Automatic annotation (TrEMBL):
This is Spore coat protein. It comes from the Bacteria. The keyword Kinase does not apply. Coiled coil: none annotated. Keywords: Capsid protein, Sporulation, Virion. Its main location: other. InterPro entries: Ferritin-like, Spore_coat_CotF-like. Transmembrane segments: none annotated. It is found in: Spore coat. Belongs to the CotF family.
Amino acid sequence: MQLAGHEIHDLHELTMSCVNSITNMGCFLAQAQDPELREMIERHFPYHIRDYNIKTEYLKNAQGPTKEFPVPDLNPVLQSFTQSPTSVQPVMPRIQVPQFNDREIATAYLLTLKRAGREYAWAAMEMSHPDLRTFLEDAFRMSSRHAYDVWQWMVQKGYYPLEPASQNVQTTMAGMYQEVPESNPAMTPVMP
């Protein structure tokens, strides 16, 4: 099977993004001070290497990779999904940076994962090669789950705000939408 022209170009951009991610992760591993942050990046690192290698295989051979791409599990660790366990720490950009601190590492990594996730989702929607489309969907899920890990670490450290929506806003939004009966005969096929 041959790849379409747009698929090759998307793969090129996504592979360049992986080069950036892996290079940054190597730097982050050398500079991270917090053992939990370093362990998380070490745990994520092989997924990003595999992701990159699968892309290079697709670029060389449209038949695709010889290895599986495992999607990591979602790992919720926060006790509350609406409230920070600690107060939010203020931040200000530094203009002279001889070395990143842990907050800067986590922020850069989180933003890299979010950007990669958007790129994977967008590219997957454009793929005509079904195996490549599935791989990019899985790569999106990897990015999403790794971003969740980093985000939770940042929330625990007070580096990312987490607060519940006000009851007033929730009531307003909930009142805007009415459910559609799913037993409507016009709906075919009927969902289980």
